[in-house]
Amino acid sequence: MSPSKAQDTVGVVGGGMSPYRGLMLAPTPSLPSALHVLEWIKRPYEFFSRCQRELGDVFRLRLPGLGYITVVASPEYVKEVFTLSPEDGHAGKANVVLKPFLGDHSLLLLDGAPHQRHRKMMMPAFHGERMLSYGTSMLNTASEVIDRMPLERPFPIHEPLQELTLRVILKTVFGVAAGPRFRELMMLLNESLSIVARPVMLFPVMHRDLGPWSPWGRFLRLSERADALLQAEIEEARGPQGAGREDILAMMLRARDESGHPLSDQELKEELITLLVAGHETTATALAWALRWVLSDAVLCKRLRGEAEELWSGGAPSPERIARSELLDGVVKEALRRIPVIPVVGRVMQKPLQLGPYEVPVGQMVAPSIYLVHHNPALYPDPERFDPDRYRTFRPSAWEFIPFGGGFRRCIGAAFAIFEMKMVLAMIFRRLRLQLAPGYTPRSTRRAVTITPTEGLPVVVRSRAPAALLASG
Ligand code: HEM
To answer: Which of 21-35, 54-68, 128-142, 311-325 ranks highest by mean pLDDT?
Structure first.
């Protein structure tokens, strides 16, 4: 099949029979597996949509290194996947591409009892009431970053959004985000991410240390330095200077498992990196998507400016008040629905899984497609339309709205991310008159495991209200 043909259709190859109970394997596109991987990397959403049109709500793709992946698109099958027990569906094995970057002890990579142990020890820092205590710092950080945005000239807003979310997560995890150690950590994380964000870096063949100038060599040296800084931070938090700290690191240091043991230093460092990485790139990208949709809709833009004005009408609003805004809630949900930041979440089966007439054999991955579930017209009428008001009458279930995955592996930062997005958007629409850069046509592209707007979403700030005016209302 010529590549141009491959663009419009995927063809179909019968699924064959599962070796277990005589059930069928899901059908697979007739493209060579090299094209599966190319399409998966370059245009996952268009590719998934074509596969669904031609093969149905369950289909298999073959990705070199990962084997067969059964993609599922209907909420009933997503429910089957998200209600798998921790023994039957391993997510850590499905996230194996992240291992070289995050390490063996990262929550994203663990399975079974070690995963449950870490998750229990980390969860308390992400409970609802803790979120409120982070709100003011999120608003202040947003304001500081807004102050540094250029006026009247196009710039890619993804970058300052990333700086903003990195500052927020550093402050939340370590209690402060100032001083030389944090500046260095920010620089190291930014540089490391810019290396590993290139899609080719997902391939193990790229992971060769060919000296400090090779991408992997550079990444390893940056990681070594970050490790030393995190070790110093852990030791400080454990010592007399750490007394009275209430940040996430302090809570993780105090946490004990059922046998009374704390996390080891290595476990702590890998979990800290996981939170810093998982917690900022995703949220910055979701914010960029929210802006992409809102800035393309003059009426919605005006409504958001009006909402922000109303929120600030009696003086600076409390974070709780901003978080309760129905319009902001709809915008955030719709941004996460319309173009999900993460295309799929996976589970590697430890026992066969039946999905209607099909079976996913042991050792193969099953992966709910977040995008396809979010574009099901029976759930979301006119799914291409960005409509923050659709949630006034429709409350999707845990299998119908899945930007944060689901079940016992659902993102531990989901409430944090939603809360942060509301604070940042409220501040942006209170202080800025923003436009998409003239001539820019928004499209999506891949940055490592996330799907982001092309060119970092170029925008122009037309005017900026001074921060000082906001406090007095
Ligand atoms: C809009 C922002 C975010 C999106 C779209 C997102 C998405 C996801 C998804 C899809 C998963 C996999 C869930 C599954 O396998 O079922 C996940 C896991 C995870 N996320 Fe997030 N995330 C976001 C923000 C955050 C934040 C702010 C943090 C931390 C502060 C965070 C930390 C984690 C961690 C530690 C896991 C692993 C959970 C586990 O395996 O038990 N994420 N996230």
So the answer is: 311-325
Distance from C-alpha of 151 to C-alpha of 432, rounded to nearest angstrom:
10
User: What integer is the mean pLDDT of 291-308?
Assistant: 97
Distance 342 CA to ligand 1 centre (A): 9
| pLDDT (tens digit per residue) in 188-235 | 988 888 887 777 777 777 888 888 888 889 989 999 999 999 999 999
pLDDT of residue 164: 96
Phi, psi dihedral angles at 60 (to 5 degrees) = -115, 140
Instruction: Establish whether residue 342 lines the binding site of ligand 1, counting it when its CB lies within 6 angstroms of any ligand atom.
Output: yes
Task: State in Å: Cα 414 to ligand 1 middle.
Answer: 6
Positive or negative: CA dihedral 386, 391, 396, 401: positive
The pTM assigned to this predicted structure is 0.93
Atom from ligand 1 closest to the CA of residue 347? 15
pLDDT band of residue 101 (cuts 50, 70, 90) is confident
Residue 111, Cβ neighbours under 10 Å: how many? Answer: 20
| Ligand 1 pocket member 411 (CB < 6 A) | yes
CA of residue 423 to ligand 1 center, whole Å: 19
The CATH superfamily holding the domain 3-472 is Cytochrome P450 (1.10.630.10)
Question: Which residue is associated with the tokens 């949220």?
Answer: 283
> Separation of 333 CA from ligand 1 center, angstroms?
15
pLDDT for the residue numbered 317: 94
Residue 352, helix vs strand vs coil: coil
Cβ(404) – ligand 1 distance below 6 Å: yes
Phi then psi for 432, rounded to 5 degrees?
A: -115, 145
What is the C-alpha separation between 80 and 85, in angstroms, rounded? Answer: 10
